[in-house]
């Protein structure tokens, strides 16, 4: 058992650092730091994805025969940690980390050949069609319907909370193709071209002031049956498989640590009147730091036990819960640390393209929007209450 | 980088878990709770035979040169059965201090005997006025013509009643007056003027307070050359906190499993308690906190030999976090057992009490979050 890196791992760390130094522009770095929502805008995020792809690092979690870099768990860890430290853009995870593994696991050879290279290269930008207005936590009650018509499905219904639907050219969606005895039956997993006639997108503004999510409407949208992944009616299985990747196959602690570091630096600065000199702020920073330490060890334990490309299973719920709670603790701490400056609202977006002097120093601009947007962490990808249900059922057997 | 157990470590875990499961049941624990010694000399002998007493001791002194991860594996298994043998006092604290500070002769005279089970130690350091400040020592060691004269008092000496020899910390006063240094002194149990007041310890085992009215010791009672004792004490206590953290994880795991079983069996309103979402979510939170505690105990163990600030922050972070988790898991275990949880008829209370003792020992969560925060200035950026 060893937490330190061996010579080969240190060499790889140097390689990653070199790659980042060469490819991460000041513009990307500043835009990422000034993005208070979860994902970078596509012009920033996809530029980074293209750079990763040129290096052969476009999809770290994929098997090597589909373009994965065949990294050891330690290499994945080093890569994610170095990326977090450097503040690289958040790439479109809906492609690489969500639909990618499903296509690899259950897609046809044609689907693999067509879609996977386009995810790697950043040519396709994906969004996720899961939730519906009437189907949130009870996702399998979804009603968007796909009716077979020759070689096509005709889709009618609506999806909501669709992150970056306004940027995406493709959507993967769960749709109802039949009514089985259980509501989980009769759901199919389908890939949709967002330019298909009949699709409209309505923006939804969230409380932090960002436009990240949307509602998407389907009005007699024709999608080829060939776009279905796997068997008809088995979509729930594929969708859950994907959710486990979404929830906890990543390495979140490094990014949380960088978030806390930024807050600590503000607390140590004269800008906040040295908030850190208040013993309760200092102790709270320690409390969050220790929570990140615990999460990091759990991630390392899970990572050590997993092979590349393997699905993490129910432990992903445990990780998702802790990551989301700690993220919220970091952002809550941030809002407290900046004190009166938390009162200033900057409505313009993106923050990295402001054409006026903001009311508060640039380092503070994202603090309150991140806190406000961060309330969604314990809601999206399955609420904390749903995660606790899964832990009780899958890990405790009750 | 790899966090999987090696084959040897897996074997150690299996043998420790098996030993505890076979030798430590409720009857044994009840017997020990009323035993004047508080543990079983026969079990201690078995520990020696299994090589567990030799585990962290260097090979040149008859040991196995094991590390903190191996100690943690043992301690977690001990926690599962509420083992009350003086392992922390003798091995994790005592042997470590002798190894770190002792002269070669002092090590040769003691470490092999510790390893074979014939010598037990205790570490007498805490004082009432010091609270959890390890640097605050009012006990004085005056130089005399023959050696040393110790005066002062210590509290919460783990397993001091069973020790053949105590390691007592004291401020060294040489012929010129206070030296500003703390020294560690080897005090045999039967030294005249050493008054031991023992008591049963919360959660099993025993402890004592000691009075050193006018204790005369020979020249050679000072451990090593009398330098570097405070950093060694901090190091040893950080190690002990990592080990105790692992023990707490074992205790919490047992409580989680016991409580889980109970909520499946106990029926109210015509259904098992575990059918209620509020109970299911509570158990999920308990499971999560056990897992976080496990991560922190392992982290502290892996960093016991890191440079002092990193080591101390890992130990304090672990102590604070595991303490917090321990209180939650312990208190909720009682809550979910309902009225039965507060009786001595079930063992939930005994496990809970050991967790409370863990949280208190060497300072609770608030103390260690504060220490963690104070050490931040000395540390690399978070």
From TrEMBL, chain A:
It comes from the Bacteria. Residues 7-123 form the Acyl-CoA dehydrogenase/oxidase N-terminal domain. Keywords: FAD, Flavoprotein, Oxidoreductase. InterPro entries: Acyl-CoA_Oxase/DH_mid-dom, Acyl-CoA_Oxase/DH_mid-dom_sf, AcylCo_DH-like_C, AcylCo_DH/oxidase_C, AcylCoA_DH/ox_N, AcylCoA_DH/ox_N_sf, AcylCoA_DH/oxidase_NM_dom_sf, Mycobact_Acyl-CoA_DH. Residues 233-395 form the Acyl-CoA dehydrogenase/oxidase C-terminal domain. SUPFAM superfamilies: Acyl-CoA dehydrogenase C-terminal domain-like, Acyl-CoA dehydrogenase NM domain-like. Its cofactor is FAD. Residues 127-221 form the Acyl-CoA oxidase/dehydrogenase middle domain. The keyword Nuclease does not apply. One of its GO terms (molecular function) is flavin adenine dinucleotide binding. GO terms for cellular component: plasma membrane. Pfam families: Acyl-CoA_dh_1 (PF00441), Acyl-CoA_dh_M (PF02770), Acyl-CoA_dh_N (PF02771). Belongs to the acyl-CoA dehydrogenase family. This is Acyl-CoA dehydrogenase. It comes from Bradyrhizobium centrolobii.
From TrEMBL, chain B:
The keyword Aminoacyl-tRNA synthetase does not apply. It comes from the Bacteria. CDD domains: ACAD (cd00567). Pfam families: Acyl-CoA_dh_1, Acyl-CoA_dh_M, Acyl-CoA_dh_N. Residues 6-117 form the Acyl-CoA dehydrogenase/oxidase N-terminal domain. Its cofactor is FAD. Residues 122-210 form the Acyl-CoA oxidase/dehydrogenase middle domain. Residues 235-365 form the Acyl-CoA dehydrogenase/oxidase C-terminal domain. Keywords: FAD, Flavoprotein, Oxidoreductase. InterPro entries: Acyl-CoA_Oxase/DH_mid-dom, Acyl-CoA_Oxase/DH_mid-dom_sf, AcylCo_DH-like_C, AcylCo_DH/oxidase_C, AcylCoA_DH/ox_N, AcylCoA_DH/ox_N_sf, AcylCoA_DH/oxidase_NM_dom_sf. One of its GO terms (molecular function) is flavin adenine dinucleotide binding. Belongs to the acyl-CoA dehydrogenase family. PANTHER family: ACYL-COA DEHYDROGENASE, ACYL-COA DEHYDROGENASE FADE28. This is Pimeloyl-CoA dehydrogenase small subunit. It comes from Bradyrhizobium centrolobii. The lineage of its organism: Bacteria, Pseudomonadati, Pseudomonadota, Alphaproteobacteria, Hyphomicrobiales.
